[in-house]
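Work Package 4 report. The design task specified in the project plan requires that, given a folded chain encoded as structure tokens, an amino acid be chosen for each position. We show below one input record used in the internal validation round.
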């Protein structure tokens, strides 16, 4: 079904011919919380999207042996398509470093997934995020989940129209717009192996 992702993003690097790895780090008081989520986006070569997803599905157990996968989606529309977006949970930066070291030593992961798929990835982006204080991460009662949950793209459009008529929302947007660098809306479709749907 549908999953929508509304996030603030910065352009991290200009596009080149070689694959890129980009990362932005969060700042501010939320860093004191320890637990964070890494948002990863892979831009794939269009003819290789299905091959990449099938290979990950077959080898997901090798990667989740090292850290928790929150969700894995393919991008339906919103910016460049032929992307996958996934979220990994870490206790802290030391935990993430330990996972990266363990993956570098995991020969099965390297040989069955990483090496065969490197040529399929055009660009990789990574963002560190924290939950806002009033939010908690949990599986919804239905098999559709989003970072901003909507029954469909049409219900999202109707909800946005209604919220633009609410003076509280308008005031909040006016107050926070000065902090906005850019905004991107992406429609995400959960993969069969995604914990969140």
């Amino acid at each position: 079904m549908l999953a929508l992702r509304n996030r603030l993003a910065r352009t991290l690097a200009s596009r080149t011919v070689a694959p890129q790895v980009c990362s932005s780090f969060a700042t501010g008081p939320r860093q004191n919380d320890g637990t964070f989520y890494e948002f990863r986006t892979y831009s794939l070569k269009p003819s290789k999207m299905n091959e990449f997803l099938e290979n990950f599905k077959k080898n997901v157990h090798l990667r989740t042996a090292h850290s928790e996968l929150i969700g894995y989606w393919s991008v339906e529309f919103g910016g460049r398509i032929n992307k996958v977006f996934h979220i990994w949970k870490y206790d802290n930066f030391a935990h993430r470093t330990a996972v990266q070291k363990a993956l570098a030593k995991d020969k099965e992961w390297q040989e069955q997934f990483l090496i065969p798929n490197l040529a399929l990835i055009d660009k990789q982006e990574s963002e560190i995020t924290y939950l806002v204080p009033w939010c908690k991460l949990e599986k919804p009662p239905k098999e559709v989940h989003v970072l901003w949950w909507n029954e469909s793209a049409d219900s999202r459009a109707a909800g946005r129209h209604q919220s633009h008529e609410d003076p509280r929302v308008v005031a909040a947007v006016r107050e926070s717009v000065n902090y906005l660098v850019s905004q991107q809306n992406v429609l995400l479709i959960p993969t069969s192996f995604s914990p969140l749907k």
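The longest strand covers residues 68-77. Validation will be extended to a larger panel in the next phase.
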